[in-house]
Design brief:
Number of helices of chain A: 13
CATH class of the largest domain in chain A: Mainly Alpha
Order of helices and strands of chain A: HHHHHHHHHHHHH
Oligomer: heterodimer
CATH superfamily of the largest domain in chain A: MetI-like
Radius of gyration of chain A: 25 Å
Low-confidence stretches of chain B: none
Structural class of chain B: mainly alpha
Distance between the termini of chain A: 36 Å
Helix content of chain B: over 70%
CATH topology of the largest domain in chain B: MetI-like fold
Largest sheet of chain A: none
Shape of chain A: globular
CATH architecture of the largest domain in chain A: Orthogonal Bundle
Mean pLDDT of chain B: 89
Structural class of chain A: mainly alpha
Mean pLDDT of chain A: 84
Largest sheet of chain B: 2 strands, antiparallel
Helix content of chain A: over 70%
Radius of gyration of chain B: 25 Å
Largest interface: A-B, 112 and 108 residues
CATH class of the largest domain in chain B: Mainly Alpha
Strand order of the largest sheet of chain B: 1-2
Order of helices and strands of chain B: HHEEHHHHHHHHHHH
Number of domains of chain B: 2
Number of helices of chain B: 13
């Protein structure tokens, strides 16, 4: 894929060269740029290709040198067998159950985070109140707090509430502000929009709720989508939370099932083809989401970094 | 006992709705209530809107923060109440714990290598992408890919790639091994090689994401600055040194700070990859093990506080140094 890009780019440069100024240095420079880009992208792509290729191999082929990039035969069954062998060590933990567990955690946490973030960012961006800037500064500094420091007391809180081994510790906290980085991002976004429309709506007699629902939400929709995909990714990938709070295997989300599977079978020869199949399954929804909504991924990533 | 899906989801769902509803009620109630007692309307609205976060700050940050500081001076195994032992945890950490120093060393070296290498690589790619490259969307998509993947999947993938007998890396390096006449490297099992292996894996995960961030920063640099520099007779290197670097410095600063904080807290990757005891382990993993495998909550809290201090010192140093090299557009024109 990358080589065709290089060829095409060079081909398009030809007319410029033949049109009068034979600037060989320019062409060579371009060529070097594309070669370097292709080289670095191989660093990115080869491991991915290796993951997928491994996930489709029969066990004997795993250790064959030179590596067979396209397995023969292609073992699609690996995907089924990986989950059925997981079901054997963790009764009741089927693929669909894992998917449902993961989605319950991800969607509940994400929707609560999005709701809370919109409210809080709106408050910080549009209303003056005593202590606002101090509070905002406090919020920014909580981003620097390592998560591990609050982890133990937080665990103790949930333990006292008798909610260990429930999903609550993973999804209820999301209602409380929804993450400082997200509030920060959304506030920056709101500040870049002039408040004219809201003021006009107020003049027309809209109440606070109407302003929020009919003006603010549509305005920040692009930013919310960007935050949404990042939050989906964050919760889908969250490992430490489920690791600490969930014990019953049947409740495990994907990432914990992966760890459980890895830990249970690593006594024998590691079944890398199964593990790569599960890793691929775990990555697939994120990759799909990324390809559909990559504009929002990149937007969310860069709002805070470039303007902040 | 086999929990059905409904049995495990329904109670949480119910409590989730209750807490969410309570939160909404609090926002509405505070808004009305504060205005009722005579608070200015704008103040009431603002306070009501940020109140979920404010409550969260108290419950999930302020209290745990203070309590873990207290716990760090106690012996606490969850089952008996915490027992005050003064600074003994810290004394043990610095003088007795044989895991501590190797782990600190590993974590710091990892950050010290991963952050600068990742930034230089990312800056290189961003500069390449910024040169009117065709199909920029495609390149950006490719480079950002690793950052989309779950850390757990990434860790397993690299464990497999580094596996000494059959992994991809040793396969690719085979000609070099043959040339130098050495044994294939035992990546994650040979203590000396744990660090390089983690750095390579870490770079794969972040350098693309940083490249995308830096590219956005580069695109933000106004073209007229380069034109002005050209008129003044600046060459490519001078433009890079006197236009690109200062104008990009706030983005570089952001990637530096997030990079340091992030790599000192590496957990998932480290948890998925067993490494020899002699090599130490990453601080976050060490803390997790002390707290949840051995139930030494007090000692784990002391370790966590130590990590906080390390992060704070480094962040303050970076912020201090930023006055010398970070240029903010529009700050004192």
């Amino acid at each position: 894929m990358t080589t065709t890009t290089t060829d095409r780019a060079v081909a398009q440069l030809q007319p410029i060269v033949s049109a009068g100024r034979p600037d060989a240095r320019y062409v060579v420079g371009r060529l070097v740029i594309y070669l370097l880009l292709a080289f670095f992208s191989l660093f990115v792509l080869i491991p991915l290709a290796y993951m997928i290729s491994t996930s489709l191999k029969v066990e004997e082929q795993l250790f064959v040198w030179p590596i067979q990039w396209i397995p023969d035969p292609i073992q699609w069954q690996n995907y089924m067998q990986a989950f059925s062998s997981l079901g054997q060590i963790a009764p009741g933990l089927t693929f669909w159950r894992i998917l449902a567990n993961t989605l319950v955690i991800t969607l509940l946490a994400m929707s609560a985070e999005l709701t809370a973030v919109t409210l809080v960012a709106y408050g910080f961006a549009r209303f003056r109140f005593p202590g606002r800037d101090t509070l905002f500064f406090v919020m920014l500094s909580t981003m620097m707090l390592p998560g591990i420091i609050t982890l133990i007391p937080t665990f103790l809180i949930w333990r006292n509430l008798a909610l260990i081994d429930h999903y609550d510790p993973l999804v209820l906290g999301a209602w409380f502000g929804g993450g400082a980085w997200a509030v920060f991002l959304l506030r920056q976004f709101l500040l870049s929009i002039p408040p004219d429309m809201e003021e006009a709506a107020v003049v027309d007699g809209a109440n606070a709720f109407q302003v929020y629902y009919m003006i603010i939400l549509p305005l920040v929709k692009p930013a919310l989508l960007a935050l949404g995909v990042l939050m989906f990714q964050g919760n889908w990938n969250n490992f430490m939370g489920p690791l600490i709070y969930l014990n019953t295997t049947v409740q495990f989300p994907m990432v914990l099932a992966l760890k459980f599977f890895e830990a249970s079978i690593s006594n024998e020869a590691p079944k890398w083809h199964y593990m790569m199949a599960m890793a691929t399954v775990m990555a697939a929804p994120l990759l799909a989401l990324y390809f559909v909504a990559q504009k929002y991924f990149i937007e969310g990533l860069t709002i805070g970094a470039v303007k902040g | 006992m086999q929990l059905s899906a409904w049995e495990s989801y329904a109670p949480t769902l119910l409590r989730w709705l209750l807490v969410g509803g309570g939160m909404m009620a609090m926002v509405v109630g505070l808004n009305k209530g504060l205005q009722f007692i005579g608070v200015r309307r704008e103040t009431a609205r603002g306070l009501a809107l940020v109140s979920p976060w404010l409550l969260g700050l108290l419950i999930w940050n302020a209290f745990p923060f203070a309590y873990s500081f207290y716990l760090s001076f106690t012996k606490y195994n969850i089952f008996q109440p915490p027992e005050w032992i003064g600074i003994q945890n810290y004394v043990e950490m610095f003088t007795k714990d044989t895991n501590f120093w190797p782990s600190l060393r590993l974590t710091l070296l990892y950050a010290a290598l991963n952050v600068p290498l990742g930034m230089v690589g990312a800056l290189g790619v961003a500069l390449l992408l910024n040169r009117d490259v065709k199909a920029i969307g495609l390149w950006r998509t490719i480079y950002y890919l690793p950052a989309v993947l779950p850390a757990a999947a990434v860790a397993l993938l690299w464990r497999w790639m580094f596996s000494p007998g059959s992994g991809l890396i040793n396969f690719l390096f085979q000609p070099f091994y043959a040339l130098l006449n050495v044994e294939p490297l035992q990546w994650f099992t040979e203590p000396r090689l744990v660090l390089p292996a983690f750095v390579i894996m870490g770079m794969w995960g972040v350098f693309g994401a940083n490249a995308v961030i830096l590219l956005a920063g580069l695109k933000n640099i106004p073209q007229h600055l380069y034109e002005a520099a050209s008129i003044d007779g600046a060459g490519t290197m001078q433009k890079f040194r006197f236009v690109t670097i200062p104008m990009l410095s706030s983005t570089l600063f952001y990637t530096l700070v997030t990079g340091i904080i992030g790599s000192l807290q590496i957990f998932t990757q480290a948890f998925f990859i067993p490494i020899p005891r002699r090599a130490g382990t990453f601080l976050n993993v060490l803390i997790y093990q002390e707290a949840f495998s051995f139930r030494n909550m007090g000692y784990a809290s002391a370790l966590a506080w130590f990590l906080l201090v390390v992060i704070l010192i480094l962040t303050v140093l970076v912020f201090r140094s930023s006055a010398a090299w970070v240029h903010y557009e529009g700050a004192k024109g």
